[in-house]
């Protein structure tokens, strides 16, 4: 069927594909559409925070996201600007809510040395319940924290990003 202009039809079945320059309507009843990114949230912390010997939340680095459905996946990304206040210091960090896997950096010798901790976790939540992710830090040895440069000046940024992906784009 070749049509010029707008054609209205009901119960149309197409065996393979439809080619058109423009479609009309909102497409609300379409199925099988893979959209990729469904939600994205990011929070930032630009203040300073010293570490302690036990895990503590970094101020403001927490995100709660309710999955679109149980089969989506969430990419949780942590990026921290760390500093080492003392020689032989080791800073550790983790994302609570995404497995709590610990990552860290270490510096020896000297003090006042900046570093970075980054972590990417693909979280298969298998739920429609709200998911909460929180960044925590501690020192394993020595002392340090986040967002200071070698002079001890506030000069950094820490971020937590959560991106929900349609499961159809995850290979």
What does this structure look like?
Helix content is 0%, strand content 46%. It contains no helices and 10 strands. The mean pLDDT is 87. The chain is mostly beta strands and 171 residues long. Strands 1, 2, 4, 7, 9 and 10 form a 6-stranded antiparallel β-sheet that branches. A 4-stranded antiparallel β-sheet has the order 3-8-5-6, with no helix packed on it. A hairpin with a 6-residue loop joins strand 5 and strand 6.
Q: What share of residues is helical?
A: under 10%
- The number of distinct β-strands equals 10
- Mean pLDDT comes to 87
- Terminal-residue CA separation: 38 Å
- What is the string of helix and strand elements? EEEEEEEEEE
Range of strand content: over 45%
What is the number of helical segments per DSSP (H or I, 4+ residues)? 0
Class inferred from helices and paired strands: mainly beta
Enumerate the spans where pLDDT stays under 50 for 5 or more consecutive residues.
none
Q: Which radius of gyration do the C-alpha atoms yield?
A: 23 Å
Q: Looking at the structure, what is the overall shape?
A: elongated
- The biggest beta sheet, please? 6 strands, antiparallel
């Amino acid at each position: 069927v070749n049509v010029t202009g707008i054609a209205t039809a009901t119960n149309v079945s197409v065996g393979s594909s439809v080619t058109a320059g423009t479609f009309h309507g909102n497409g609300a009843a379409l199925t099988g559409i893979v959209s990729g990114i469904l939600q994205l949230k990011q929070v930032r912390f630009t203040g300073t925070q010293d570490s302690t010997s036990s895990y503590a939340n970094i101020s403001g680095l927490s995100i709660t996201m309710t999955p679109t459905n149980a089969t989506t996946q969430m990419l949780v990304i942590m990026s921290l600007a760390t500093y080492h206040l003392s020689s032989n210091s080791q800073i550790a960090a983790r994302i609570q809510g995404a497995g709590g896997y610990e990552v860290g950096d270490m510096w020896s010798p000297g003090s006042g040395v900046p570093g970075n901790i980054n972590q990417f976790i693909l979280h298969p939540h298998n739920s429609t319940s709200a998911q909460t992710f929180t960044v925590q830090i501690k020192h394993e040895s020595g002392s340090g924290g986040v967002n200071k440069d070698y002079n001890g000046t506030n000069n950094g940024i820490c971020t937590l990003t959560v991106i929900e992906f349609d499961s159809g784009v995850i290979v």
